[in-house]
Amino acid sequence: MPTMHAQTVTLWIMHALTIDAHRHTPRLAITSPIPNCGKTTLCSVVGVLTGAPVVSNTTIAAFFRRVDKEGPRPVILDEVDTFLSADNRRGIGILNAGHARAGTFVEVAEATGEGFEPRRFCVWAPVVFGLIGKLPVPALESRSINILLKRKRPDEPAEPILPADEKRLHALKVRAICWGARMTMALRGADPALPNCLYNRDRDNWRPLIAVADKAEGHWPNTAREIAAALNGQAEDPSEGVMLLADIRRIFDEKAKNRLSTEELISALVDEEDRPWCDFQEQGHRIGAKQLARLLKVFGIRPGTVRIGDNTPKGYKRAWFEDAFDRYLPIDTLVPDPSATPATISWINGIRPGSSATAGATPHATDLQQGSS
């Protein structure tokens, strides 16, 4: 795996050992395209360093009972693809629930002597998934940080983990647990500065890892932010509705018009081949007027009659979008105030004052796409 993936696993382990300090716990999805890529080996290493056993081919019922009984200890589920599918909505919902401390409990009907009684189970715990392929549903994938393993080439060296290595890992585990015990109180309520290119749930996923990196000091604060940007950074908010707003604003700007008919707007949207509107929702058809109206309705925008020349077709006025543009779209170009200091400008752009994006980083951190570990 690339060095940045190894560093991500390191940060995830330390977040798991300080779990009482955090509000979110991203799932660590260790995946591979085919068998024999080291997935189970990595799960085992994470298990040793966190003190958690690796469990294969379990059930969702066993999972939530175990978490409820043992508390927020790390749970490592290998071979997830053998027992979890997109059809298992109940299981996916339970795994989703434990991502945020606010969704700590699930309620299950338990059989009693007189019928069934509701019982609450706590599902708040750090979770590792090991599987071939990808997680079965986007909702679970969005709550996970993905570590993709590849089969090594013949010219790439690899050494087995020997008993002597296991002793070193156990010694490292003791040091990690001690560090976590010292830092848990300091990490409570931490709200680290996050890269501006992280959106939505990716911010929740990376906040605890970057908080840990800030406490680790050294190169870690910069390294963690660089990795987060490389793995999950987006040039724009990837949610469908916000993507649509961005495209509509661009179309209004390019056409220099303050109103567009629905037909003209749709025609402009589907002209962009790298956007989803020409093959909307994988149905092989371009987005239609009803689908456009449905996506915009959640922002309080509805089509109406607009005058264009001598015609009055259904369409949209730019004025109807301005509030949504201001609320959901970033300013394209940040023009700092002439009186702003360099430190202020850096802070606006998501870099701590007095630092740079690469200051203090190791060669492994700055060359994120190269190297292996």
Question: How would you describe what is shown here?
Answer:
- This protein is of the alpha/beta class.
- It folds into two domains: 3-235, P-loop containing nucleotide triphosphate hydrolases (Rossmann fold, 3-Layer(aba) Sandwich), CATH 3.40.50; 240-328, Arc Repressor Mutant, subunit A (Orthogonal Bundle).
- The chain has 14 helices and ten strands.
- It has helices at 3-16, 39-50, 60-70, 89-97, 138-141, 163-187, 200-216, 220-232, 240-255, 262-270, 289-297, 322-328, 342-348, 363-366; strands spanning 27-32, 54-56, 75-78, 105-112, 115-122, 127-132, 144-148, 259-261, 304-305, 314-317.
- The strands form three sheets. A five-stranded parallel sheet has the order 2-3-6-1-7, with helices on one face. Strands 8-10-9 form a three-stranded antiparallel sheet. A two-stranded antiparallel ribbon has the order 4-5.
- Helix 1 crosses helix 7 (200-216).
- It is globular, with a radius of gyration of 24 Å.
- The protein starts with a helix and ends in a 7-residue tail after the last helix.
- Mean pLDDT is 84; it is low at 332-373.
**Low-confidence parts:** 332-373
Structural class: alpha/beta
- SSE pattern: HEHEHEHEEEHEHHHHEHHEEHHH
Give a quick account of the main beta sheet: strands, pairing sense, barrel closure.
5 strands, parallel
Strand line-up of the largest beta sheet: 2-3-6-1-7
* Radius of gyration from CA coordinates: 24 Å
Q: State the separation between the terminal residues, measured CA to CA.
A: 6 Å
Strand content: 5-15%
CATH homologous superfamily identity of the largest domain: P-loop containing nucleotide triphosphate hydrolases
- Oligomeric status of the shown chains? single chain
Percentage of residues in helical conformation: 40-55%
